[in-house]
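Protocol step 4 of 6: structure prediction from sequence.
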Amino acid sequence: MLLQMLVVFRNPKDTAVSLFHFYNNIPMLPSYNSWDDFFPDFMAGKVVWGSYFDHAVAWNKHLDEDTVLLMTFEDMKEDLEGSVKKISEFLGSPITEEQVKQVAEKGTFKAMKDNSGKTHGAFGQIVFRKGDVGDWKNNFSEAQSKEMDEKFEECLAGTKLGEMLKYGVHCKW
């Protein structure tokens, strides 16, 4: 049996904001008084799951492997039906157009959030917060944005994953 891996990445700026709120809503994690307190820890990789950028660089090395399908949160939000088709093809499990539509309807962020009480219990309201692309603009200062732009450039510019993340589209003012 062939082990296949579906990996979903989100742009680093929205990932940071999402993790900030996750920290402040999970009692077992330390909470941060402010976004400005959290941001340096995120950039240094001093958060649960470590450095976003180290993680991304490690996965970038596997993107050409037949057993890995990497998708982005942003692309899934933009074209969920197309993403469902791509996943089913990757897994070798063809589905009908009707099934694609059903999965996409139940797989929207809103549908999953609305159903999260059944699927995740009380934890659902923590996991499914907003699901917006571009929410980072409500938190980042210009200096923080520039700092992350430089880190992205250093770690992921010119890589396949860097291109897939469409950083210029999703992470620029």
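Step 5 (inspection) to follow. The first helix runs from residue 12 to 25.
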